[in-house]
Amino acid sequence: MKDPTLTMPAYRRNHYQDPKFQQQYMCLGHKISTLRTSMGISQRQLADVVGISRSYLSKLECGYGISGVSIEVVFKIAYCLNVSTSQLLHLRTQDYKSCNRHLSKHYERVEFFRLAHQRFLELKKRL
């Protein structure tokens, strides 16, 4: 497997205890989000049952700040999503492909809004 730190944007690199696991964190978070939404559960509902804040769950689902998550939280999330812990943690090739598609769309949106904001500021200067 190629080094995931080479494919991720720079602004995501310094938020992991061990950057070589960055892609795994992000794909696990995407898997949690996908399972949760497929069950029609909101972030608030899942966070309340697991005993964490909604903002922490959001960070977990984004793969941002997930390093150091307790195994108890992982057990509770798996239980609430009606999957075994091994199913939740087992990231297959298709999970990575799905995660990468999701991330590509996300980064395209971020870039679009960055360019739109830059264009807005340029137009504002002209007025």
UniProtKB/TrEMBL annotation:
Xref: SUPFAM superfamilies: lambda repressor-like DNA-binding domains
Entry-linked InterPro entries:
Cro/C1-type_HTH (IPR001387), Lambda_DNA-bd_dom_sf (IPR010982)
**What GO molecular function terms would the record report?**
DNA binding
As recorded in UniProt, coiled-coil segments are: none
State the UniProt keywords alphabetically: DNA-binding
The record, for Pfam families, names: HTH_3
Show where the HTH cro/C1-type domain sits.
32-88
Q: What is this protein called?
A: DNA-binding helix-turn-helix protein
* Species of origin: Veillonella atypica ACS-134-V-Col7a
